[in-house]
Structure to design on (290 residues):
């Protein structure tokens, strides 16, 4: 058997990718090491890639924070509601506009309209006024409804649908199937890679969002996780009492801060491997045909 030759481009490309992977993973390893280090070691900035004076105190402190655990629950609810609503609306929007002009004459109008909304928005202030007048402020719906239909997701999915041979749908219609049955029995099963990709986008987007929580939640007990972390960690270094000084001797601000961040990353790290195998195919196929 002839051995496959490895080109110079492949070697350079692999080297660059490995370097980028190392550069990306080292800060996270350092963050984990600091989170598991003792207060004195982390405060003196003497922790590298391995924990120094191994300690779980920072994680105990973080997990005993009732506000933190409540914000985790709010973010979990946001991810569930937001992902479900977004995926349902994205599917229902992408399916009709995947047909050509003969089947759906108004297709071009709707596609152009959606692209315009993706490129231009009304602005932050009008969005805030609208959500306030709709009574969404201080409710979970303020975090879910405004971005319920990401146009980028619709474009990816409609392009994926357009790669499905139209003869399959025509044969189903001849056999008596309607559009909803075609969508449920043909398009959705064949579009599984794209659906898993968009689901991952939705989960990560909702889990990492923080600004809308700061904008629409006037009660800090309703903050989602990332908003709570942004507000809490920005004031973590403030010493307000003697108790704070005593606490810093056992748990430094850096250890506690990184413990919060590590805990907030765990759900995404658990979900990503389950969906990652579909992401490559979903992105490639959904972006080939426009």
């Amino acid at each position: 058997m002839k051995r496959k030759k490895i080109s110079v481009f492949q070697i350079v490309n692999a080297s660059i990718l490995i370097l980028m992977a190392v550069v990306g993973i080292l800060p996270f390893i350092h963050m984990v090491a600091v989170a598991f280090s003792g207060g004195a070691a982390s405060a003196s900035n003497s922790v590298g890639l391995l924990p120094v004076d191994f300690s779980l105190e920072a994680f105990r402190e973080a997990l005993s924070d009732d506000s933190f655990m409540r914000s985790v629950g709010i973010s979990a609810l946001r991810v569930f509601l937001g992902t479900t609503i977004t995926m349902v609306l994205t599917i229902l929007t992408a399916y009709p506009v995947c047909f050509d002009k003969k089947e759906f004459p108004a297709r071009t109008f709707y596609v152009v309209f959606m692209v315009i909304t993706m490129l231009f928005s009304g602005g932050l202030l009008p969005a805030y006024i609208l959500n306030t007048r709709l009574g969404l402020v201080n409710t979970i719906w303020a975090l879910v409804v405004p971005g319920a239909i990401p146009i980028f997701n619709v474009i990816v999915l409609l392009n994926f649908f357009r790669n499905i041979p139209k003869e399959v749908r025509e044969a189903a219609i001849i056999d008596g199937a309607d559009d909803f049955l075609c969508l449920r029995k043909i398009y959705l099963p064949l579009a599984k890679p794209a659906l898993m990709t968009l689901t991952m986008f939705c989960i990560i987007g909702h889990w990492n969002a923080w600004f809308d929580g700061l904008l629409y939640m006037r009660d800090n007990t309703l903050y989602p996780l990332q908003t709570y972390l942004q507000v809490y960690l920005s004031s973590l270094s403030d010493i307000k009492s003697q108790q704070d000084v005593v606490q810093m001797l056992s748990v430094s601000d850096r250890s506690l801060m990184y413990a919060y961040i590590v805990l907030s990353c765990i759900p995404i790290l658990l979900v990503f491997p389950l969906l990652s195998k579909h992401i490559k195919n979903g992105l490639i196929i959904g972006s080939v045909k426009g």
